[in-house]
Write a structure and sequence with these properties.
Keywords: Transferase. One of its GO terms (molecular function) is transferase activity. It comes from Liquorilactobacillus vini DSM 20605. InterPro entries: Bacterial_PTS_sugar_comp, PTS_EIIA_man-typ, PTS_EIIA_man-typ_sf. The structure is a single chain. The radius of gyration is 17 Å and the shape is globular. The protein has a four-stranded parallel sheet with strand order 2-1-3-4, with helices on both faces. Strands 5-6 form a two-stranded parallel ribbon. It is of the alpha/beta class and 146 residues long. It contains five helices and six strands, in the order βαβαβαβααββ. The protein has one domain: 3-Layer(aba) Sandwich (Rossmann fold).
Amino acid sequence: MKYLLLVSHGEFSKGLKNSLSMFAADKIDDVIAVGLKKGESVDQLADRFAKQLDALDKNADFLVLGDMIGGSPLTTICNVLAQHGLLETATILGGMNFPMVLNAIMLKDSLNGDNLVETVLNEAKSALKEFKPRIAGDEDDDEEEI
């Protein structure tokens, strides 16, 4: 089974999982959200995540989305995956946002490797733009009217 593993500082990953359940409730059991709690050490996070891993299939695959590449939570989770022999088959992406998470859950079982990475990252990037609302009566048709 391939899991979508959301990793963050604080409760960000849990909030994303909660929002994701509104769009992909039928796939939410494939999502694991883990965050480094305020005041928690990385060792405590590692222990907590290792216990979660022990309850999963030993042949599980992971698509890991982290809030920050190089951050303590993602680094810690990667270390635990390595200790369990699961890092080599994991795909790890950083800079997580909601469009990225939504695409990841929808595509994780149908795309693999570079195709999955490219599609998920492109969606995350394309979602980043300025929103310029148009006040009713403005002339520019390229902006959303409010």
